[in-house]
Amino acid sequence: MTMAESSGPLAGYRVLDLTDARGVLCGKILADLGADVVKVEPPGGNPVRSLGPFAGDIQEPERSLHWWAYAANCRSLLADLETPEGMARVRDLAGRADFLLESLPPGRLDRLGLGWEALKRANPRLILTSITPFGQTGPYRDWKGPDLVVQGMAGMMFHLGDSDRPPVRIGVPQAYLQAAAQAAVGTLVAHSWRERTGQGQWVEVSAQVAMMWTMMSETGLPALHGFEPFRDGVHARYAGFRRRIIFPCADGFVALIASGGAIGGPAMEALTAWMDEEGMAPDFMRGRDWRAWDAAYLLGAGERGQAELDQVEAAAARFFATKTKGALYEGALARGVLLAPVADTRDLLENAQLAARDFFVPVTLPRVGRQVVHPGPFARFSVTPTTLRRPAPSIGEHTADVLPSWERTGATERGHACDPSSSAPFEGIRVIDLAWVATGPITGRLLAEFGADVIRLESATRIDPGRTLPPWADREAGPNRSQLFANYNAGKRSVALNLSHPKALEIARQLIAQADVVVESFTPGTMARWGLGYPDLRSLKPDIILLSTCQQGQTGPHSHYAGYGSLAAALAGFYALTGWPDREPAMIYGAYTDFVAHHFASAALLAALDHRRRTGEGQHVDLSQFEASLHFLAPAILDYAVNGRVAARRGNRDDGAAPHNAYPCAGPDRWCVIVCEDEADWRSLCRIMGEPEWCRRPEFASQESRRCNAEELDRLIGQWTVAQDPASLARQLQAVGVPGGVVQSCSDLHRDPQLSAWGAFRWLDHPEIGRAPYEAWPFRCSETPGQLRPAPCLGEHTHAVMTELLGMSRSEVDGLIHEGVLR
What we know:
Elements lengths: L13 E4 L6 H9 L3 E6 L23 H7 L3 E4 L5 H11 L4 E4 L5 H4 L4 H7 L4 E6 L14 H7 L21 H23 L4 E5 H6 L8 H5 L9 E4 L2 E4 L1 E4 L2 E5 L4 H17 L17 H7 L1 H18 L4 H11 L3 E3 L3 H5 L2 H5 L3 E6 L4 E6 L4 E2 L17 H9 L22 E5 L4 H11 L3 E6 L24 H6 L4 E4 L5 H11 L4 E4 L5 H4 L4 H7 L4 E4 L16 H7 L2 H4 L16 H22 L3 E4 L2 H6 L3 H10 L16 E5 L6 E5 L3 H10 L14 H6 L1 H12 L4 H10 L4 E3 L3 H6 L1 H6 L2 E6 L3 E6 L3 E3 L16 H9 L3 H10 L4
Parallel strand pairs: 1-2, 1-4, 2-3, 4-5, 5-6, 15-16, 15-18, 16-17, 18-19, 19-20
Antiparallel strand pairs: 6-26, 7-8, 9-10, 10-11, 12-13, 14-20, 21-22, 22-23, 24-25
Helix pairs in contact: 1-7, 2-26, 7-24, 11-12, 17-24
């Protein structure tokens, strides 16, 4: 493949992809960004092809919708790693590749003669990325980790579901999508350093740590609040009070966060006015100061605050019951109410915003014999547009093409200006960070930790909501006391700049003129009204890169919607799929889509930086958090597009394993997940349980029969596990090869020996928060570990940045502070 065949920012790079379902999305992201990704398949096809759903429910390798979702834009090459010929072919291609991706068990590549030491001798510029359940080292490195086990051991599952039932996972497998997306980011971090130094490196990824990152800094609650969140169905328990998120309506469910403050206050004013128009606003809602009714107020008010919240939610529930989710969403969009429908896959295909942005791309698939729609690009690039270039390949479809096309100019022969002394991938890059809360700030933290100078422009006059969110040091709110903010803004500098002041806008322009990247997440149009739209930025710095990460993108009828990430999770379909089929959807803790979208935002920005390095061109990257998140539900979306089937909640059930659930153990709210993926797992589990008579019943004689009788099977297993210590049981199971693990609380995570071996929590001192845990990245680079530093206090670096970059004197800075410009 030549660069002319792909317009994406990574056009021209070669990726050899040996991954299965645990890493398939990593290759897909790189392929979507323009790289030539070649999937190496054995004669029977990649194991991903065995995963449903299937087109027409015909279980054939070429009809797997999972494969169609995550192998589009890739090529397929036939090579059997179990044969000398296949190994020789892979070794030859590895010598010509820029990247090699794999998800084999730790040590397997070494046994095949393809370990890191052998690979780098043959190709010193190669980047090897390895995705495993728990990492390449540590006490659990050899443990089996299917999705349920990883979700359980990563902490998220402990907080999902109803308190009177077992913990429940996010409804469709997510752990390895999180890991693979993070792998793409880590791969591009390593690539940035390689292009500076000429040296490749090994990137390892832990799915457990990747999944742990989705909990929105909840891991800091035990240390800072002495509080352990727990599952509560449609409610979230956060910072000591109970908040309902999901409400029934006339034809389904909607999500609402009844919250005041700078963002939530105006939305609650709008909801109250709407209810009042229809005679349904109670007296206690009319005339309330909603802007003062924030999380800090509710927590400080104690029982009275919880009672007020309960009253408001009950009144809202009565109102919602009178309307459909569509009517509620349209009304919310028109009035500025922060509400979203709990959408299913049918709703997604009918979504007006996605239609207006042409998100779904028509693809003709010969195995179906008709045109179907496929999720489109996860980001829009103004200079290097990404497209759906080809559907997922058939087995070995490109074998004859790959070998000759890769013979030209192998990776080791490419010449670059290199500085072997460069210590960090983004050294010399300056970023102006205007983003709020999570998606954009996490991208900024990534660059800061790996060498960039990231400067936050923020103001006490309109504070980033991330600074107002718990966990707080000593349960005391304050702009410099949020560990959530600290976690996602580590290593940055902070300048207090009141952008409502004309002089502040001129200062912002002067800083941007000295920057390489601007990251923002404002409602579309805000930057342009300030004179900071992309054309304005280009006039200041022609090669500037602008990354915009608002919820629904820069264009379309719903682009102005500025809802919370937890509402985006409802809108994107995650809530509808999570929970038990006979109950309301389960609320997913935190802003889950933020912790999907940030992977795509980071990958898009790093690809744009690489394109600029190669060509001198900057560009505007429009990333819709909503659209990016849909790639984590792509098989379910294709199931509706192809088969007309709307995905539904299944609890912890899975088509590929039985048993497959969380089981009660000794102690209050203690659970262990157990997964039997084949008959060998089932026989081993029966032996551990002491071969009870019921194991020999005909209804449990095969995996299919166990799935059909899962409720009774779960009851019987639970009768045995309830007397077992969960950690001891997990060790017993894994010792005989049965996937199992503790469903861990946040407190458990801090005691987990595998997370400790990874260094998943880095304790740093902050001037107001004190000593607190920061979450380490789910990827580790062998040569560039990064440097984690505490987050800034608001305006901490105002004087330093103004004097260093703009040449102001201290008295000039003090004068601007007095004027209200720098505050």
